[in-house]
Amino acid sequence: MKPRGAVRIFAACAAVVLLFLAGCGKKTLSKSELRTITGEIVAAAQKINGHKSEIAIRPELQPAKHGGASALAADNIYISLSDPSQTAAFAQALQAIARRHELTLTETASSGVIRLDCAFHGARTHTVHVVTPLTARVAAHAPARAVAHAGSPRLAIIIDDLGYDRSAADAVLALGFPLTVSVLPHLPLSGELAEEAQRRGDQVMLHLPMESETDGAKPEDIELRVGMSAAQVDATLAGMLETVPYAAGVNNHQGSRATADPALMQALMPALRQRGLFFVDSRTDAKTVAYDMAERAGVPAASRKVFLDDTASRAAILKQLDLAARDAQRDGFTIAIGHPRPATIAALAEDVPSLEARGIHLVYASELVH
Questions:
Q1: CB of 84 closer than 8 Å to CB of 43
Q2: Low-confidence winner among 188-192, 261-265, 333-337 (lowest mean pLDDT)
Q3: Which domains, and CATH codes, for the chain?
């Protein structure tokens, strides 16, 4: 072989080796590569579900350094499948995508929600939440629950204060039984959490901020306050509802002063009635007149009987759940209110199945208003 030809062959081989090493050394994906994978994941879900999947994509940005522009760190993808049997096919499709792009794939599952994390050289690129609506999960896994429990004690559990924390909301929405979630308005996560709760089959309420009597209570920037006119109440309510889609009713957030004011409650109730919304009095103060005013105005209404987590310990919350169950057995129904706290979520996950075994039928808040 001529020396010049050998040099050319060696140079070509060296170039191939350098390209291989460059590929092996790559530790991150570009934005276009990441988004290409996102498109493949979405297309796989739509193909499996006959283009009926509800899909939301929420980019996760990496904080900017030294005043520079924020970079795309990962895509969070929320996929709703109409049939639980489709999840296995989607997981297989995602495994194929991961192999094609040299991604590692980690799966966790709880209460009807499957989370799949994709990573490239240890750096997470995608988190895929695969959700089947509660109604589909009930039909697939517990057909008997679809049968009406005539005469059974009924319990509605409302979880307040959603809108601040995505991970806490995910934990609440992953619980595998009917819940009514009450979402605070005008927060960055208000709309998407309301939409996701609706998608998963839970009932949505507006957690309506109202003026508090308590010293030191931080007022909300936008809330119902004593002295407002009926027009101001209507406009304030309308603005809040725009940020909490699918709200079927409302309950008060704080409001010890507001709910004790007859004039303000008289102004609120026609605005609810015109929109077909029900009202649950959280009873943050014994002097409340809200339920009475709702009843007079012809608004379907009910009152909270049990607070689950005034004391935020698992043992205390389990006692309150037992109290709610006994109230439901005595009166036929009851409404309990809790918050998206770790101890509350853990206690619900642990104890609700035993409540159902005792004959307590979990329902949405709308089923207990009258």
A1: no
A2: 188-192
A3: 31-61+71-134 (3.30.460.10), 148-367 (3.20.20.370)
